[in-house]
Design goal:
The protein is α+β, with helices and mostly antiparallel strands. It is built from two helices and five strands. It has a five-stranded mixed β-sheet. A hairpin with a 5-residue loop joins β4 and β5. The chain is globular, with a radius of gyration of 12 Å.
């Protein structure tokens, strides 16, 4: 899957108790991160959370828009949309069962 690139919409809630994928929020995926929205810390936490959740290296995840907003778009390298959706849904389901 070399050269494969997919964009993903996120709705981010910074300052949460813990970082997790919550589930769908319209066309986006809702995620929560513990980092505050100051100095780019929440953005970095979002990138790390998504990379970890999707089992991608950190440098395969890039924030492309929404740097100062809750609604963000990230670029993912190496996975197709179907696999991304499957992995995010699995992560959200695990969180619901906790």
């Amino acid at each position: 899957m070399e050269g494969l690139s997919t964009r993903l919409r996120l709705r981010v809630s910074p300052g949460a108790r813990n970082a997790r994928v919550v589930g769908r929020h319209g066309q986006a995926w809702k995620v929560r991160v513990a980092a505050p929205p100051e100095g780019g810390r929440a953005n970095e936490a979002v990138v790390r959370l998504v990379a970890e959740t999707l089992s991608l290296p950190r440098d395969a995840v890039t924030l492309v828009s929404g740097h100062g907003a809750r609604d963000k778009i990230i670029q993912l390298a190496g996975l197709d949309e179907t696999e991304i959706e499957r992995r995010l849904a699995t992560a959200a389901e695990k969180e619901r069962r906790r």
